[in-house]
Every structure is written in C-alpha cells, then in structure tokens.
Amino acid sequence: MKALLSSVIIPWQQPHPKPRIPVVCCSTINGSSSSSSEANLQSSQPQECKSSNAEEPKQSEIWRLFREAQKNILHLNQHRLKAVEDLNKINIEKQLLVDRIEQLELEKQTAVAKPQDRLSMFWELLLRIDSMVLMGMVTIGEASNLRRLVMDHKVSVAEVFNDTLQKSDAEILAELRHFLERNQRFRNGFHIVHVCTEMAPLVSVGSLASYVTGLSCALQRKGHLVEVILPKYSNLDLDEVQGLQEIEAECYSYFNGQLHGNRIWTGVVYGIGVTLIQPLYYSSFFNRERVYGYSDDFERFTYFSRASLDYIVKSGKQPDVIHIHNWETAIIGPLFWDIIVKQGLEGTRVLLTCHDLNSQCLEHPEKLALCGLDPARLHRPDRLQDTTKAHLVNVLKGGVVYSNKVVIMSSIHSKGRVIHSLSHGLDHTLNIHKNKVVIAPCGFDNCTWDPSTDNFLPQQYSVKDMKGKAVCKAALQQHLGLSEHSSTILVGCIFSKVSDVDLENLRAVFRKARRIDVQFIIKGISKISSVNKLGLVHEPLKDKNVRFIDGHDEKQSHLIFAGSDIILCQSFHDPVLQVPLKALKYGAAPIAVNSNDDGFRNFVEHDYETTNFSRFISSTFGNMSITQALDEIRNNPSKWKRKIMDAMEMDFSWDAECCDIHASAYTAIKNL
C-alpha cells in the first residue's frame, strides 16, 4: 500500500499548478504482485492508466497554451503601462499648452489695456496742469505751452511720466519744464472742448449723449484732442468716470451780479477728459430728478454756460474750438464774443451743433443780464430777437448768429430742405448765415455693432462670409418659437414709440403679409420710451408668425438685427436708436414706416448738399415699400443680395462721414 501511495501523482503538490486530471496509476514492488486488495484495485483501474497515458499530450498542449496566454497578458500589460506613461506625458504637455494660452491671453489683455493706460496718463497730466493754473503755480501762457507739449502724440509723454504721477504738482511741473526744453514740437490736430448737457454713458436723455461720445472718440482716433465739460448732476453715474478727483481750488463764475464758487471734478471717460462743474451757491440747479423740463431751465443752463467759459479761462486752456450744442449752451456764442474772447482766447473759435431746431428757448431780454450780457445790445433782429415774438429773445438764434460754424444733424435731409422747410421759424436767420451752415449725418458705434466681432451672436459673419447670418436667423426663430425655415422672410421691427399712424400701417402690412410666408418680430424699447400702444396691435393680430417683445435686452436686440432679412424703422433719421445704420451693417434692409396706401415709403431728398448716407439710401431702400421689398426678395434674389452686400461694405459709423464733416468745419473756422 505504501508503494501504491508513493506512486500516486497529486497535481496540486507540483511547483507550478496544473489542471487537475482524475488519474490514478498503480505499480508493483520487485516485480511481485500486491495483495489481493491491491490487485483488485489495480485490476479495477486498468483503463484509467491507459487513459492517463493518452491524455499526456493534451495536458502538455494545455500547458503550452497557458504559458502563451501568460506571455500575451504580460505583453499587453507592458503596452498598457506604456500607454499610461504616454497619456501622462500628453496631459503634462496639454497643461503646459493651457498655461501658455492663458499667459498669451493675459499678455493680449495687457497689450489692449496699454493704450487706454497711456491715454489715462495723458489726461491725468493735462488735468494736473489745470490744477496748477488754478493754484497759481504756472501762468496761463506757460500752461498753454505745457499742454501743447503733452498733446503732441509724437512725444512719448506717458512713458516719460509713468513714475511721476505719484509725485507732487511741484515735482511734476519741474519734470514738465525740463521735458519742454528738450521737446519743442507741436501737434497738428485740433484741441476741441465740448460744452454740453449730455454724454454717454454718464447722462443720456436723447441723441446728444451718444453723439458727443461717438464723435469725440472718433476725433481722438484721428489725432485730435477732445475734452468735455458737463454739469455735475446729482444722479450722474460717476462709476463710469476713471480717476475722478476734485480740484482743490474753487473756480468762480459770474451770475446775477455776483461771483459764485463752483466745485470742479475731473476724470476720464472712454479716454476722453471730462470736467464736471458743481455750483455751490446754486446747488439746486442740477440736483434734480430730470435733466430738462423745469421752469428755470434758462437760468440753470445759462449759469452752467458762463461757469464753463470762466473755467476754461482760469484753467489756462486755449482750445482751437469750443463746441456747443442746442439751445442749452447756445448762449456761449454771445458770451464768448462779447465778454470772454478778450481774456486770452483770441485764437479760439465757436461751433454750434443743432440736434433739434424745434427747441429754441424764448425768454425775456432782461434775463440776459444774469450772466453779464447786455440785453439792449442783443435784443435786435440781427442778433437774439425772436422773429415771430419780437418782445422775446431766442437763445438758439443767438447761437446761430454768434457761432463761426453751425452743424445741423440730419441723416437724410439736404441743407436747402432744412433751411426752408424744417427750421421751425429760423429760416430767415439760417438763410442769412447759410454759408456757415453744414449738414452732417448721425453715426453709430461700430465697435459694439459689428456682426464680424459681435459676441452676442451664436455665429459671427461678414460680407465675405455670410454663413453666420443663416445661423443667427435659425437661432432667432428657435428662441421665439417660430418655424425654422430658411426660405421664410423674417421682418424685425424695433420701435422707441408708436404713433397712431404707425399702428395703422403695421396693421396694413400684417394683413398683406399673411398671404405670403413672412414672420414678424415687433420689439419695443421700454428703456427709452414706453410702447404700450403695441398692445393695440397685438390683440387683433395674434398669429403664429407674429411675436411681440417688450423691454430692453441687449443680446436679443443684436440677434434681431442679425437674424432679420428686413428691419422696419420709423425713420431713416434715427439719432437715438440708430436702427437704419445698424440694419445696414448687419445685412438687413431698412424699410421706413410711412402712411402711403401702397405700404411704407420715405422719399429722400435729391437736393444739393446731402449726405453720403442720404444718397446711398435713396438709391437702394429709401423709396421702397415693404411690399416691394418682399417682392424683390422673392423674384430677384441676386439683385437683392447685391444690395445687401453693398450696404454691409459701407461705413456709416462715427469715424466716417460724420467725423470728416466736423474736422473740415474745425479747419474752416480755424483759418478765419
């Protein structure tokens, strides 16, 4: 039995485990047979021993396959480790790349900020010079020379004085004087000072605010120096003013027979130097809810006008042009030529801009004495006496008479049409002074409103690649729950106010459009003016293809311009919303609302001295009704596409025609 047990093979006792095979092999000792029981056991398993011998090749094959499987697993594991190692390297490289991108983005932002920083430095130096004059540290003549030095864009003033602005006025003055000795070069651009009652984004009521900011930025981009003087309203958004500081010295101005102190604040807005004048004695003048609309508006703005001129004189400024606006600062014209010019401003000229000839301000002549003017001298037909109401003076008329140049803002009307038909009683005065009257169109901010750079859009586009416009159209339809068909004509309407005539015309258009595949989006800008009357259109015109939107949403407004094929506008002269100009830039046809039975039509002037915008719009969309526009889109798509692309290539921004006309006007009066 011992011999038998010793001959039994136990697989799990082997050094390397093998598959367990149920085999038992028997043997004899010294060739003799075993006991009977062993014999029986041996005789009972002869087939199993034979079977074991037959299975040995199969067992070897299994072991071979097992070893190959182990090798394969080991090989795959090595590959896996190598892949993990490579992936770690890729992740490290990716993180390095991300870090580099973030570094480049930071450098880009820094590079973008540098010009603004230099401009802020530039203005801080100029404002410090103003403070030096008011404190009596420098004479007016020396201050003028120092300003001319700083104003020279060819001189790297910001770099030279980068570390000196933390120093005292005396130390900066010494640096400036030393710098002046080494640099006696003067710039060719103009120095323009706006004296006005609005400026975006500080205070915006009408078209004046965006005009002052847009034109000033455009002029500075072309090498001119522009600054703005405003009243310091109690509700002014001072968070928009960079580096706001109060000049310690009080600036006195003449009003109502006495000298009254003003607190002067200075800062920078959009790279433009801004001065805020705050009356101390007449503190209630600008501490009110509204900018305009009070019974003492004449006193309020006359005080501000005189205070602005006194500040210009006492700060030693000698601008090339004092640019005044509307009747609110038109009194500066007679004030300048009768009183101020002899106080060191012999080289300065006055330009008046009229945004609304209907607002003229009629007052009793004796009130002119409040700011030091002589009523008897000015209450004459050739000066301030009103043409219709001879017992009163007309402040806007005085601005026209006493200014060296008058710019009337009108995008579509000719000079002749404005003088003879749209002057609201000033036609006689404007006709006498017609040689100094010019017409200028409004512009728009093409930095904010440009489909090729507009971050509000789902996909940007340009005249060279219009694919993004179709994407914007689909996004707009989806956003408002309209059916998304590219062939559907989408008409956007953006109104600040709705008249009864507009309502009737809208109803007529909707009725005609129901017969064809047209979608309408009507948006009211309640931030500017309530559009409650749209509700009168909404109820009778409920339709699956019409959507009404109210409220101010900047992203939504951009998407409407980008996604629309046509933009219905109330007028081509739209200085507040600038709807026609934005529509042209975004590849949407502006069609004007008009009371003609045939649809909306606006007949643009073909008289002499019209603007480029007027001539372009009259040759494209100006004489087109909504019905005609829809027909041309359907029946002559290639011609329509050409019109749209030509419009997108035009430049009607502040930097274009509007800026050029003003620069030419400054040049003309400077040569007088």
UniProtKB/TrEMBL annotation:
Record region (Disordered): 35-55
EC number: 2.4.1.21
Pathway participation: Glycan biosynthesis; starch biosynthesis
TM ranges: none
Residue spans of biased composition, Polar residues class: 38-52
A molecular function GO annotation: alpha-1,4-glucan glucosyltransferase (ADP-glucose donor) activity
SUPFAM superfamilies per record: UDP-Glycosyltransferase/glycogen phosphorylase
Name under which the protein is recorded: starch synthase
Origin species: Prunus persica
